[in-house]
Write a structure and sequence with these properties.
Helix content of chain B: under 10%
Helix content of chain A: under 10%
Radius of gyration of chain A: 14 Å
Structural class of chain B: mainly beta
Number of strands of chain B: 12
Number of helices of chain A: 0
Order of helices and strands of chain A: EEEEEEEEEEE
Shape of chain A: globular
Largest interface: A-B, 22 and 18 residues
Distance between the termini of chain B: 41 Å
Oligomer: heterodimer
Largest sheet of chain B: 6 strands, mixed
Strand content of chain A: over 45%
Largest sheet of chain A: 7 strands, mixed
Order of helices and strands of chain B: EEEEEEEEEEEE
């Protein structure tokens, strides 16, 4: 149980385009989802926290107009990188947390590698 | 604020060697502590966790003991395998399920 998927796993796009990344909890209801960014050989940096049905809370230094997060249902959150540029190339990882004692921890998706040309 | 410090890698070991990856933390109260493993090109997998002082988390031959007196959660394994090659992250959470604070990660390379 407690599986989180991400789609796509790898995306290449041209500079200036927008890219949407989906994060799904497959077998539990995710009341909270987290979006992280990871640069090569570095640790994870929390970008934002989203609760179902409410606006995401962004970490300091993360542009909310550039990284649009939607958590419209208990099983799906999306991250849209708007007008992507090469410096946005990174590995994006989501995690999800459910409710109740069995799921009161974060479960991570496999990540999405974004390359902006 | 909360912080996690890990020993810098890479750590290179021969197969069947003993592994220790140090992790210390700074936090108020009684955080939960975690070790995550990331294989190349993949997301993070929870390796083990401990939620209170003196708890020992263990999984797949890895162990870590929550030491409040030294604010440490060192990861150990008695005999590493080539398949253990990965990046290991120590992390803490103020309470189970809340935001995670990660250490910088330690890359382990095990040679046959």
């Amino acid at each position: 149980g407690a599986v989180v998927s991400q789609h796509p796993s790898w995306v290449i796009c041209k500079s200036g385009t927008s890219v949407k990344i989906e994060c799904r909890s497959l077998d539990f209801q995710a009341t909270t989802m987290f979006w992280y960014r990871q640069f090569p050989k570095q640790s994870l940096m929390l970008m934002a926290t989203s609760n179902e049905g409410s606006k995401a809370t962004y970490e300091q230094g993360v542009e909310k107009d550039k990284f649009l997060i939607n958590h419209a249902s208990l099983t799906l959150s999306t991250l849209t990188v708007t007008s992507a540029h090469p410096e946005d190339s990174s590995f994006y990882i989501c995690s999800a947390r459910g409710s109740g004692s069995s799921y009161n921890e974060q479960f991570f998706g496999p990540g999405t590698r974004l390359t902006v040309l | 604020g909360n912080s996690v410090t890990q020993m810098e890698g890479p750590v290179t070991l021969s197969e069947e060697a003993f592994l220790t990856i140090n992790c210390t933390y700074t936090a108020t109260g009684y955080p939960s502590l975690f070790w995550y493993v990331q294989y190349p090109g993949e997301g993070l997998q929870l390796l083990l966790k401990a939620t209170k002082a003196d708890d020992k988390g263990s999984n797949k031959g890895f162990e870590a003991t929550y030491r409040k007196e030294t604010t440490s959660f060192h990861l150990e394994k008695g005999s590493v395998q080539v398949s253990d090659s990965a990046v290991y992250f120590c992390a803490l959470s103020p309470s189970a399920g809340n935001m995670l604070t990660f250490g910088g990660g330690t890359r382990l390379m095990v040679k046959p």
